[in-house]
C-alpha cells in the first residue's frame, strides 16, 4: 500500500536525479554486449555483472547466473505485502555493422537533439533494450532511495541472449521454475508506446509456426531441353502448393485453419477503432496501398487478431546471373504461420504438412524441417493487474493508456505462461523511429525520463 | 557423281589410315581450347590455326578469321558440280574442373577399354566437339587422298565460342552472308546417334524463349510479424503466377499458346513409335515415373513435338540456414518456353508478359529481362538432301537411319535458316554416355572410325 504523497516524493527524486540516471545508462551502454559474436562474450559477462552489482546496491539478492551461453541476471527484492512482480528485459545488443553508417561511436553514448529538436540518447542498445531495462531499475532505485523500500515485491530476470536466439532461457526457466513462478505477474519492457503521447500495454501477441519444406523430383538436375515437359519440375510443384495456401479473398485455405479463431469482442473492436490508426499511412510507409489479408477486415484486425501464412523464403534452380535451362532436382521454401489466441501450433503444423503432402506427385517427395512453434498470447482484458498498470501509465501521461495487439511474437511471454504460469504485461516506452538493430539507434530522453516515472507509478498502482 | 567403287576405295583408305587419323585427333585434343576462360585465348587461337592448316593441306582455301572473341575458321574447297555443303562444328571445349575427378590428364588423350570392353578415346573435347568435327575432316581427307578430290563442293565454318555463349557467330555470319549462303545445305556434327546400332538425323529442334521476371511489392523487406497479412508478399504473388502457367492436365495455359502448334503427321507418329523408345527407362534414369506434360501424349511427343514452360529458377526472401521471418520486397524467377515449329518467339513472349502483368496487384510492379529467343527448327521430311544423307548413313550401319526430334535447341541451326536461308542436317555419332561437359569425357573409337566412314558415304550420297 502506497500513498499519493509517497509516489510524488519518488517522482520528484527521479526528476532531481535524472543526470545520475543518465550516467548509469551511459555506463551500461559503453559495455559492448553483442551476444551473437563470441568475441564479445566477456563484454556480455561484464554487462551482467554490472547490472547484478547495481541491483545488490539497491538491496536485491542478485547474481549473474551461468548458462551454457551468456549469464542470466536474477534478482529478488525483500519480501513485501501485495503482488509480486517478475520483471524481464535483456542486456545484450545487436551487432553494430555497418559501422560506417553510424555518425558517432555506437558504444560511446551521446545526448543530442534530433531534427525536430527532441533530445535523444544515441548508442547501440539505447532503446533495445538497455534504456528500457534501466527505466525499471531506476524506478526501483527511486523508490528505494526516496522511501527506503519498494512498494511491492520485485524480482528481475535479465537475459543476455535475446538478440541471438535466446535458446538457453527456457531451460533456465524450467530449471528455476519454483523460484521464478513465485511471482504473480510478469512485466516486460521491450515494446513501443502507441505514439509519443499515448502509453500502451500490449495484450495480444501472435504465435508462430515455422516450417521449411524441400521438394525433390528428379534424382539430379536435368536439362530443360532434354527433359522439359516429361520431367516434373519441383519449382512448379512448389509454386502450386504455395499458391494453394491463399484463397483469392486473402484467407488461408488450410482445412480447419480458422476453426479455433474467435472474432474479437465488440468492445475491443471499438477500442481499436478509437486508436485512429491510419491504414493508408501504415501501408504507404512500405510503398503499398492494398491490404493483402482477408478482405473486409481492418488492417489492425489483420495484424493483431487474424492469423496469416507467409512465404518467408523460396528457392529452386538457377538463380545467379544470366540464364541456365535447368530443371532442378529440388525446390524449397521457408513458410510461417502467425497464430492468434486459441490456435494450437501442433494442429496448424499438422494441417499444413498434410496439405503439402497431398499435393506432392507420386514420384516426388517432400521433407519438412520445423523451425519452432509457439502459441499466441492474450492477457485477459479484465485482470486487476492490467487495470492497475493502465491506471499508473495514464496518470503519468495525462491521457488514457491504450490496450493494443501486436502482429509479432515475443517468445518470452509464451515461456512465462507455459513454464511459469504467469501472464505478462508488455509495457515499453520505445518509438518506431528508434532505429533498433540499425545504425544510429536512439532512445528519446523523454522515453527514458518518463519511462522511469511511469514505472514509479505503475509499481505504486500494482501495490495499491 | 561418284561411283560405288570410288566410295569403297575411300572407305578402305579410312580403315588403313585410322591410326594416323587418331594421331591427328590427339594433336587437336592436346590444345587446351577452353573458350570461356580468357587465360586460354592463345590456346583457342592455336586450335583454330591448327585446323586451318590441316584444311589448307587438303586443298581448302582456309583461314582462321578474327572476331571480337575467338577466331572462326572458314574454309572452301574447290568448285565442284553437285550440291554445295557447309559443315559446322566447334573447336572450343568446356572447362575441366573438377580436375580431381579425372582419371587421366584431360588434355593428354588416351585410348583405353571401358568396362564393357569398348575402345574409347578419353580427353576433354574427345566427343564434344573435336572428335565429331574430325570425323568430317578426316572423311574429306580420305576422299582427297584416295581419289584426288572431294565428291562435291565443301565449305566449313568452325566456331570457337560454342561453349561460351557463341554471341560472336551470328554477326560473323551476317557479315559474311553472301559468301556462306552460297551453300545449299548445312551439316552439323554435334549430336548423338539414336543408339549404338542406329544412326539418326535430327530434323526437329525446339526453339526457346527465356525471360526473367522480378516482382516488387513493398519498398523494403518487412517483418512478417509487423506486416504479415497486411502487406503483399511477392513470393505469394510469384507462386500464384507460376502456378497459373500450367493446367492440371499438364498443358500450358497462356492464351494462344497452342494456336500455331500443329499435330505431328501420322507417318512421323508411326516412325517415332517404331523407335522403341522406353518411356519408363528414360524417366526412371532420372528417378521419375510419371510424365509431367500434357496427359495422353507420348513422352517423345512431349519432348520433340510439344512446347513446354519450365521454371528454371526462382527465389525470394531468406534462403540461408535457419529462419528469418521476413516479407521480402522482391521475388524473381527465370522462366523459359521451348517452342515447336510454327510458334513465334515474340508472340509467346508477349503472351507471357501480358499473362504476368494481369496478375500483378495494383500496388506492386514487375520488370522483365529477356534472355534470348529462337524459333524451332524443322527440316522438311521430304527433302532430297535429307533422303540422300539417310541413305548414306544406312549404308554404313547396315540398318535404316532414323529421323528424330530433339527437345533441346541448337541455336546455330536457327541462325543458318534465319541468316543464310539454309536447312540443316544434324548428324552426329556421339552417345549419351560420352560425359560431355563432365570429367572423363570420351568418344567411342567406333564413333570416330565409323563416323569418318559415315561421312565418306554421306558425301557420296549427297553428290549422287
UniProtKB/TrEMBL annotation, chains A, B:
<dbReference type="InterPro" id="IPR002933">
    <property type="entry name" value="Peptidase_M20"/>
</dbReference>
<dbReference type="GO" id="GO:0006508">
    <property type="term" value="P:proteolysis"/>
</dbReference>
<keyword id="KW-0378">Hydrolase</keyword>
<keyword id="KW-0479">Metal-binding</keyword>
<dbReference type="Pfam" id="PF01546">
    <property type="entry name" value="Peptidase_M20"/>
</dbReference>
<keyword id="KW-0645">Protease</keyword>
<dbReference type="Pfam" id="PF07687">
    <property type="entry name" value="M20_dimer"/>
</dbReference>
<dbReference type="GO" id="GO:0008233">
    <property type="term" value="F:peptidase activity"/>
</dbReference>
<dbReference type="InterPro" id="IPR051458">
    <property type="entry name" value="Cyt/Met_Dipeptidase"/>
</dbReference>
<dbReference type="InterPro" id="IPR011650">
    <property type="entry name" value="Peptidase_M20_dimer"/>
</dbReference>
<dbReference type="GO" id="GO:0046872">
    <property type="term" value="F:metal ion binding"/>
</dbReference>
<protein>
    <submittedName>
        <fullName>M20/M25/M40 family metallo-hydrolase</fullName>
    </submittedName>
</protein>
<feature type="domain" description="Peptidase M20 dimerisation">
    <location>
        <begin position="213"/>
        <end position="363"/>
    </location>
</feature>
Amino acid at each position: 500500500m502506497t500513498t499519493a504523497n509517497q509516489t510524488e516524493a519518488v517522482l520528484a527524486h527521479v526528476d532531481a536525479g535524472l543526470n545520475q540516471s543518465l550516467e548509469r545508462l551511459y555506463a551500461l551502454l559503453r559495455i559492448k554486449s553483442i551476444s551473437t559474436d563470441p568475441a564479445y562474450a566477456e563484454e556480455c559477462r561484464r554487462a551482467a555483472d554490472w547490472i547484478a552489482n547495481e541491483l545488490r546496491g539497491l538491496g536485491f539478492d542478485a547474481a549473474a547466473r551461468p548458462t551454457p551461453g551468456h549469464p542470466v541476471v536474477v534478482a529478488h527484492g525483500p519480501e513485501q505485502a501485495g503482488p509480486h512482480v517478475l520483471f524481464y528485459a535483456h542486456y545484450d545488443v545487436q551487432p553494430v555493422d555497418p559501422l560506417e553508417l553510424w555518425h558517432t561511436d555506437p558504444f560511446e553514448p551521446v545526448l543530442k537533439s534530433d531534427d525536430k529538436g527532441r533530445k535523444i540518447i544515441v548508442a547501440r542498445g539505447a532503446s533495445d533494450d538497455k534504456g528500457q531495462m534501466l527505466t525499471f531499475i531506476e524506478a526501483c532505485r527511486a523508490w528505494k532511495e526516496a522511501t527506503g523500500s519498494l512498494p511491492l515485491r520485485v524480482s528481475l530476470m535479465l537475459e543476455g541472449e535475446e538478440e541471438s536466439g535466446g535458446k538457453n532461457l527456457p531451460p533456465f526457466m524450467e530449471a528455476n521454475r519454483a523460484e521464478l513462478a513465485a511471482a504473480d505477474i510478469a512485466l516486460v519492457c521491450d515494446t513501443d508506446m502507441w505514439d509519443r503521447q499515448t502509453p500502451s500495454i500490449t495484450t495480444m501477441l501472435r504465435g508462430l509456426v515455422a516450417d521449411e519444406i524441400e521438394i525433390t523430383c528428379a534424382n539430379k538436375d536435368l536439362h530443360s531441353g532434354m527433359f522439359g515437359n516429361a520431367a516434373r519440375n519441383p519449382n512448379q510443384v512448389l509454386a502450386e502448393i504455395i499458391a494453394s495456401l491463399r484463397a483469392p479473398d486473402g484467407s488461408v485455405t488450410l482445412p480447419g485453419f480458422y476453426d479455433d479463431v474467435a472474432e474479437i469482442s465488440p468492445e475491443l473492436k471499438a477500442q481499436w477503432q478509437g486508436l485512429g490508426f491510419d491504414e493508408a499511412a501504415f501501408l504507404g510507409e512500405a510503398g503499398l496501398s492494398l491490404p493483402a489479408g482477408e478482405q473486409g477486415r481492418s488492417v489492425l484486425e489483420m495484424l493483431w487478431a487474424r492469423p496469416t501464412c507467409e512465404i518467408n523464403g523460396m528457392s529452386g534452380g538457377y538463380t545467379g546471373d544470366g540464364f541456365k535451362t535447368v530443371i532442378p532436382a529440388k525446390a524449397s521454401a521457408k513458410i510461417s504461420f502467425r497464430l492468434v489466441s486459441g490456435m494450437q501450433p501442433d494442429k496448424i503444423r499438422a494441417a499444413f504438412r498434410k496439405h503439402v503432402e497431398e499435393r506432392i506427385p507420386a514420384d516426388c517427395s517432400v521433407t519438412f524441417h520445423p523451425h519452432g512453434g509457439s502459441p499466441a498470447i492474450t492477457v485477459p482484458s479484465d485482470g486487476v493487474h492490467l487495470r492497475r498498470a493502465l491506471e499508473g501509465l495514464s496518470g503519468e501521461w495525462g491521457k488514457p493508456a491504450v490496450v493494443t495487439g501486436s502482429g509479432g511474437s515475443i517468445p518470452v511471454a509464451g515461456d512465462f505462461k507455459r513454464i511459469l504460469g504467469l501472464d505478462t504485461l508488455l509495457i515499453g516506452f520505445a518509438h518506431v523511429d528508434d532505429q533498433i538493430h540499425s545504425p544510429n539507434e536512439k532512445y528519446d530522453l523523454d522515453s527514458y525520463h518518463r519511462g522511469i516515472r511511469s514505472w514509479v507509478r505503475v509499481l505504486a498502482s500494482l501495490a495499491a
